[in-house]
Amino acid sequence: MLKNTNIRRLSRSLTRHQKVAMAGVATLGAAALAFSAVPSNAETTTNEATVSTAKVEYGSNQIKDVKASVTDQLAGASLKAEAIKAKAEAKAKQQAAAAAAAKKAAAEAAAKKQAEAARQAKEAASRAAQRAAIKPVAKTYANNLDGWIRNALDIMQSKGIPGSYNGLYRNIMRESSGNPNAINDWDINAINGIPSKGLLQVIPPTFSAYHVAGTSWNIYDPVANITAAANYAADKYGSIDNVNSAY
């Protein structure tokens, strides 16, 4: 009894550090006993009963590092996805802009083509109107002595043959009285077989020699007869106006 009491007192008097030290000594002793149980042939046997499972402890720093790594990977993937999306959107915008530009260019080209067609049509209409304005209107003449003289005068003017309405009318009335089919069968020309014919009594050789281009070759045609006679008179007398008798 005295002995046990002394041990309890000693135990209570030991400090905490002393207890820890004693526990360590006990542990070392146990370890020494375990190693001393190793066979002499150096083959190590493990007594499952003596193996203790140690708890694996994870530090908070390790968990933080893993979390940070996963977060970085997710952030990188997100940024990559956003970059791909932005690139696709930019490409779509470029394609849409190109399509809009092409559509605008086609519309402008069509409008330009239409405007050009309208301009050409307007110019063509203007030219047609100008041609119609300057196109000489076919002049008509009465089928009588007045109409024949006026027609002959227009032709004479275009050919540069002198003569006036009065000069033609005066000589016509003296030679044939205005009859385009008149023929002289009694003068020297008739005696010679070439009688004078028509309004201004022209013989066939003179008519052929002084025929005016563009008129009929029929000596009895009023306009052809007048212009040929006026052409002959201009050559011989300067103008039909200067003829006051047989010529």
From TrEMBL:
SUPFAM superfamilies attached here? Lysozyme-like
Q: InterPro entries, alphabetically?
A: Lysozyme-like_dom_sf (IPR023346), Transglycosylase_SLT_dom_1 (IPR008258)
The coiled-coil regions, if any, are 85-132
Q: Where is the signal peptide?
A: 1-42
Q: Where is the Transglycosylase SLT domain?
A: 169-244
What keywords sit in the KW lines? Coiled coil, Signal
Protein name according to UniProt: Transglycosylase SLT domain-containing protein
Q: Which organism is it from?
A: Streptomyces longisporus
**Which taxonomic lineage does the organism of this UniProt entry have?**
Bacteria, Bacillati, Actinomycetota, Actinomycetes, Kitasatosporales
